Amino acid sequence: MREERGVLPVVLAGDMDGFWNSVGRDVPKVGLRASLFHPTTGYSLPDAAALADRIARMETITSATVQAMVEDYARTLWRDRAFFRLLNRLLFIAARPEERVSVMERFYTLPGPLIERFFAAKLTFGDKAQIMMGRPPLPIIRAVGVIGTDPAWAFARRVAGSSQ
């Protein structure tokens, strides 16, 4: 019917402390520059709207207060969205390219409200369990290799060095 082309960020892992230490704090960072986007879809508009609402509710608006609030908000979202980064690693590192279609096909058989919460980045514990349960579309041994708590990109260097 139509085609869409674009580039959206999909995050596998990262070092949030290193990131915020590298961006400077003289001018508030927002949007993608503040890592405010859905880790799996790459969509940034919902986070931008939420951030604008937070800024509008601030009592004191200065570069310093906005920067501090944005950083705190971005760090909170980073922690809250760890599950999405895990799903990204499962899809883009553990799964072979030819297996990714079956992963996506299975996802879209899940209940509509769960898919809506996924896109809103508001998954419940039950939603996460439902996404992970059932016959896995990729071998468990490869999936386990991307589940650790390795800092930053250590898991990617380890997987890239092995044959998949």
What report would you give on this structure?
53% of the residues lie in helices and 0% in strands. With 164 residues, the protein is an all-alpha fold. The chain folds into two domains: 16-80, no CATH class; 82-157, no CATH class. The longest helix has 18 residues, at 63-80. The radius of gyration is 18 Å and the shape is globular. The model has no long low-confidence stretch (mean pLDDT 85).
Short note summarizing the structure:
The protein contains nine helices and no strands.
Layout of strands and helices, then pairs:
Elements: H1 16-23, H2 45-56, H3 63-80, H4 82-94, H5 100-107, H6 112-119, H7 125-132, H8 140-144, H9 154-160
* Main beta sheet strand tally, sense and closure: none
Shape: globular
- Tally of separate domains: 2
The N- and C-terminal alpha carbons lie at a distance of: 35 Å
Q: How large a portion of the residues is in β-strands, by DSSP E?
A: under 5%
Order of helices and strands: HHHHHHHHH
Mean pLDDT: 85
Gyration radius, in Å:
18 Å
Number of strands: 0
Number of continuous helical runs: 9
Question: Into which percent range does the helicity of residues fall?
Answer: 40-55%
Uncertain residue ranges? none
The helix-and-strand class reads mainly alpha
